[in-house]
Design brief:
alpha/beta, single chain, 18 strands, FAD-dep_OxRdtase, oxidoreductase, FAD-dependent oxidoreductase, eight-stranded mixed β-sheet, binds flavin-adenine dinucleotide, oxidoreductase activity, about 425 residues
């Protein structure tokens, strides 16, 4: 078993990184080489800005290369809950921002000719308990009428056409959702940004940011850049103002990938080939790959990733996989890895300007599509169009008692386990 992401192991690496020092002056310094940063660099360079992207490790080395490969529409919250807390119009706007985000990924893959197996496969959200399906069914009319006519409720008696598992009590299909090979997409995005003139520095951690006349001094391990504007595209990292540390919670999530299972076996497990997610808080997300594997992810344990933690989480995930599909028997697990999710308390992203720095973050595990989209949005915002930002004006309160490291994670894990048992 390889303790690294399948996506990075099966994609061509990006080979266009700058060899020299990171010095001189630029219009924009983009910090972070995940999807937010790469997409922003591409969109800014397309507008004619001089751009330096500064990445601490390799591009896509963090969440963007370590996720489940779902490009889903729909918000993390159920639509009825979102409408109850924000009002119908606001909820609809946010919901449609996720539709736009899936469209953005599809458009960029087409425009930049990125061969990443993008496919509108749809997603099915599977009810892990009868009460979860009842809640889905109660909220369905509002969702279908007000936000997404391409959704469909699937009762338990018809679920066999969607999934070869007896564990679920019904489901909700979102037809606009998609999937792709995130490794190939990321390399393609980096190459596209470079073609447009953005300079991409790998192994170049930003050490400090200082405001100065006409912009910022961006000190890196390979020199200091002067930048008129700075975009923080740093995911769950701790760079930037303390403001973010009080509002973003880093959460671990883990993934295993099986050996190739063959088309017939996969079709018996997931006949429609959609992305699957489950309704438990400590639930699972899964999909198939074009080379016949099953990608199976989940929070598994409330722990941050490390080699040992990933291996332990991988064993938890493997048990869940066999409980869901007992007919599979024992299958080989070829890949196992973990990554960090940048979560907000309400699981909605945040973007804007803070202390003179632009930022887009807090995708809360629903960020493959949204990070790509927000890269383009932030290029517009930095060009003087703040109204382009779908998350503009969302209140963002600090998490009580949170000042950096998530000390409360084991307690939260116990609480969520209990919720999963009683809900
Ligand atoms: C295990 C897992 C599964 C997931 N599954 C899905 C899924 O199936 N679908 C979905 O929609 N979303 C999923 N997500 C979430 C999604 O991957 C992220 O929301 C998205 O990739 C965030 O992109 P980003 O560019 O904002 O952040 P990242 O990809 O985390 O990039 C941030 C970059 O900033 C760099 N950086 C940080 N600090 C510095 C510094 N000081 N100097 C220079 N560089 C710095 C980091 O090295 C990193 O490369 C998952 C996430 C994880 C971890």
């Amino acid at each position: 078993m390889r303790m690294l992401p399948y996506w990075l192991d099966t994609a061509p690496p990006f080979t266009g990184a700058e060899p020299g020092p990171a010095e001189g002056g630029v219009d924009v310094a983009v910090i972070g080489g995940g999807f937010t940063g790469l997409s922003a660099a591409l969109h800014l360079a397309r507008k004619g800005a001089s751009v330096a992207l500064l990445e601490a490790g390799r591009v896509m080395g963090a969440a963007s290369g370590r996720n489940g490969g779902h490009v889903n529409n729909g918000t993390a919250h159920d639509f009825a809950g979102l409408a109850a807390s924000l009002g119908l119009d606001h909820a609809r706007r946010l919901y449609h921002a996720f539709d736009d985000a899936v469209d953005t990924v599809e458009r960029l893959a087409r425009e930049e000719q990125i061969a990443c197996d993008f496919r509108r496969c749809g997603k099915i959200k599977l009810a892990a308990k009868p009460a979860h399906y009842e809640k889905m069914a109660r909220g369905f009319d509002l969702l279908h009428r007000e936000a997404d006519a391409e959704t469909e409720l699937v009762p338990r008696e018809r679920l066999g056409a969607e999934i070869g598992s007896e564990r679920f009590f019904g489901g909700l299909v979102f037809r606009r959702s998609a999937q792709m090979h995130v490794g190939r997409f990321g390399t393609g995005l980096a190459e596209a940004a470079r073609r447009q003139g953005a300079r991409i520095f790998e192994n170049t951690p930003v050490l400090s940011l200082k405001r100065q006349a006409g912009g910022h001094a961006v000190a890196t391990a390979r020199g200091t850049l002067r930048a008129r504007q700075v975009l923080l595209a740093t995911g769950a990292s701790r760079l930037g103002p303390f403001y973010f540390r009080r509002r973003l919670v880093p959460l671990g999530s883990f993934v295993i990938v099986t050996e190739p299972l063959g088309a017939a076996r996969l079709a018996a497990l997931m006949p429609t080939g959609r992305n699957g997610t489950t309704t438990r808080i400590i639930g699972n997300y899964f999909r198939t790959t074009p080379d016949g594997r099953l990608v199976w992810g989940g929070r598994a344990r409330f722990a941050l990733p490390s080699r040992a933690s990933d291996a332990r989480s991988g064993r938890v995930l493997e048990r869940g996989l066999h409980e869901t599909f007992p007919q599979l028997g024992r299958v080989g697990i070829d890949y196992c890895w973990g990554g960090i999710i940048d979560a907000t308390q309400d699981r909605l992203p945040r973007a804007g300007e803070q202390d003179g720095l632009f930022y887009a973050t807090g995708y809360s595990g629903h960020g493959v599509q949204m990070s790509v989209h927000m890269g383009g949005v932030m290029a517009a915002v930095m060009d003087g169009r703040p109204e382009a930002n779908p998350f503009r004006g969302l209140a963002w309160k600090p998490v009580p008692g949170h000042f950096g490291p998530p000390w409360f994670m084991p307690l939260a894990g116990l609480y969520y386990r209990l919720q999963d048992r009683i809900s």
